[in-house]
Amino acid sequence: MSGRRTAHRRSTRISARTAATAAFVVLSAMVPGTGTAADAQQGVEADLVYRCAFPSGQRPVTVSVAARLPSRADVGEAVEAADVMTTIELPEEEVTAWAAEGAASARADTRLTVNYAQAAESAQAQWRGTAEETALPGSGAMEIVATGNVPTVTAGSTGELSLSAGELGFDLVMKTAEGEATAQETVSVSCTPAPDGDGRFAAIPIGKDVDDPGEASASPTASEDESPQPEERPRSRAPEVREPAQGTAADPEAPPCHYEDAPSVGLVTYITGYSNVRKLGNASLLPLSCVNVDQDPIPDIEFRDGVLHIIQNSTGVLDEANRPRTTPGPATLLTFGFMPTSAKMVLEQTGPMTIDSDLANTFPRTKGTTYIRVGLTLRLYDVKVNGVPLPVGDDCRTDGSLYSEEPSPEQFPDPHLVLVGTGTTNISGGEAEGYFLLDGGQLTGTFTIPRFTNCGIDEDLDSLLTASLSGPGNYVKQVQGPPCGVAVGTDRFCTDDLQPKVIPVPER
Question: Measured between alpha carbons, how far is 492 from 23 in angstroms, rounded to an integer?
Fold first, then answer.
């Protein structure tokens, strides 16, 4: 593949976590104490205890969070965490089991929820990181150290801004000594903080430093006849989180994504995300997958209630090695009486994919609403219960498409999944917020999983899987990256060989 995708990989670390942490703490101490609020830095590190759901069951895990943060900041000033490291100590029992299954190394993608709190206001962000491939130790626990760019936060008022660690998730990708995938290539783990801790690991004063002599001398002295006027306090606002540039924490090992013989308005893009299965109470990763999109070259124009609407209709096809399906990926579940269960999962497109966007122009803003409809069946294979294969066969699938409640059933009568994305932008230009087809973003939906059929080789397992997985009330959050316009081939969103340059990051 020619042309680099937008993905960030740091150079190989050869020192231990403690040495790396000490290094940036020393650098922080060398920063002079004068200058702007963001000039002075503080090194922070905290060891936290989590309860993590591994395929074998729940285990306690020690997690260290380290970063370099401003010592203080002003209202409206972006607070950026640098040199962020999330270190996870994997239990010896799990490492030994992986090694017994042929794993020799592992790399990881991590997702740490960070809560920003200031008085009664709060906001959340996900600190994402990537841990480079690390050899499994011969014995003992294993440390993975994940690094990456994280969102910035802007305080809306004066007072202390505290940072606390919340839920943690990570995906481990296992390789053999020969560099091949293991039988259980990916292990997805979700963790919750131990109940006896609040997770707080940093605090940043927001507002001017009253002890700063430069600030004091800049204020005129009131005369004895003048009464000091009360300072007008700004209205308290919640901290505002801004995500880093798309693709900076993405997996560089993306699957191929070409659109052969694309029309002049053809697009190619990546999608990923998470799906929560209600009966299981956890989230499954939707692996990074490729979609080919055909736009209608001439949009429709409508006037409704005095508002100009531009209607853009498009169609799409999933493309995994010229097959209409998502990239096959693992799903680690706790089911069948809380027995750890793993499986390979793939979504196969069985009906048309329609992408209908309505752009309502209400000066000076444009509001976009996009409905994506697609018929998808869910197929499971390589199912294991407590490590023992469950012979479901190669054609174990839902009896029909996953389906959502359809707002226009007369127009779209067949069962299908419905995803909805909304966004706004200035008519005069500027950065878009939310979802637009040509910008990417988040789409969400709820759906029902139909009963399973064709499951089982020596015995009928349809009812077992149906009872464990099928039913309504499931949720999906899909993230689409900015598409590559194949005919245009812009450097901004396309690699040299016309694949999407920006790789989206899944969000829960």
Answer: 35
* Contacts of residue 399, Cβ cutoff 8 Å, sequence gap at least 6: 450, 451, 452, 453
- How many whole angstroms separate alpha carbon 25 and alpha carbon 45? 10
**pTM for the structure as a whole:** 0.56
User: How buried is residue 331: exposed, middle or buried, by Cβ count under 10 Å (0-12/13-18/19+)?
Assistant: buried
Find the radius of gyration of the CA atoms of the chain: 25
Residue 429's CB is within 10 A of a number of other CB atoms, namely: 7
| Least confident piece of the model among 105-109, 175-179, 433-437 | 175-179
Helix (H, G, I), strand (E, B) or coil at 253: coil
Q: 13-22, 166-175, 445-454: which has the highest mean pLDDT?
A: 445-454
Closest CA to 272 of 318, 217, 216, 224: 318
What residue type is assigned to position 202 of the chain? A
The mean pLDDT of 356-377, rounded to a whole number, is: 91
Strand partners, 82: 68
DSSP-derived secondary structure letter, 178? T
Handedness of CA 383, 386, 391, 392 (dihedral sign): negative
End-to-end CA distance of the chain: 30
Binned at pLDDT 50, 70 and 90, residue 86 comes out as very high
What are the structure tokens assigned to 297, written together? 């070259």
The larger pLDDT score, comparing residue 207 to residue 225, is at 207
As a whole number, mean pLDDT of residues 40-46 equals: 86
Name which of 207-216, 416-425, 449-458 the model is least confident about: 207-216
Contact 417, 406 (CB under 8 A): no
Total number of residues shown for the chain? 508
Element spanning 18, H or E = helix 17-29
Q: Which residue is listed with tokens 């990537």? A: 130
Q: Which of 441, 444, 434, 508 is nearest to 476 (CA)?
A: 444
Tokens of 78: 């972006």
Cβ contacts of residue 364 below 8 Å, gap of 6+?
426, 427, 428
